[in-house]
Write a structure and sequence with these properties.
Layout: H1 17-26, E1 32-34, H2 35-41, E2 51-55, H3 59-69, E3 74-75, E4 87-92, E5 95-99, E6 102-105, E7 108-111, E8 118-120, E9 123-125, H4 128-137, H5 141-152
Parallel strand pairs: 2-5
Antiparallel strand pairs: 1-2, 3-4, 4-5, 6-7, 8-9
Helix pairs in contact: 4-5
Length: 157
């Protein structure tokens, strides 16, 4: 089982993150922080190189909301390999928004739903179960194992 990190976490700038979360929430959607940011929030890592935010919403409506808010982005959606997310938008070099997060697994396309399960530093946290599955599908077994061990330890409230 992972030991709590002893050094202060190294995080990407929050530039754009709070604004993105506000824009999505104002539309009635529930965005959540996943990826390495989730690992740091749970005490399972000390470095997050970028922010990964997921949201379940109509892709065109998300694009329209970002445009109305004047929040610049570029489309970085991938459909090769395991990737099956409707849209992946780069809001900053250090901020990815995944709309209707999904990956391909042995049984086809697997939706990975956004569900807020907690908060950390004012940020909504994604479901560790979902991210353990995502990391497993991505072949990042060490990160998947960290989350599975954390879940098995009963630290999820």
């Amino acid at each position: 089982m992972a030991q709590p990190p002893t050094e202060a976490p190294r995080l990407p700038p929050r530039e754009g993150l709070d604004r993105l979360l506000s824009v999505l929430t104002a539309e009635g959607w529930q965005p959540a922080l996943g990826g390495s940011g989730l690992l740091v929030a749970l005490g399972l890592g000390t470095v997050a190189h970028d922010w990964d935010v997921t949201v379940d919403a109509p892709p065109d409506a998300v694009l329209a909301a970002l445009d109305r808010a004047g929040l610049p982005y570029r489309d970085a959606t991938r459909t090769d390999g395991v990737y099956g997310t409707d849209r992946c938008l780069k809001v900053h070099d250090h901020l990815d928004l995944m709309v209707n997060f999904a990956l391909r697994g042995p049984d086809g396309l697997e939706p990975l739903p956004t569900q807020v399960t907690g908060a950390w530093r004012g940020l909504p946290l994604a479901d560790p179960v979902v991210w353990a599955r995502a990391y497993r599908l991505l072949g990042r077994t060490a990160k998947a194992d960290l989350l599975q061990d954390w879940l098995a330890s009963g630290r999820l409230s």
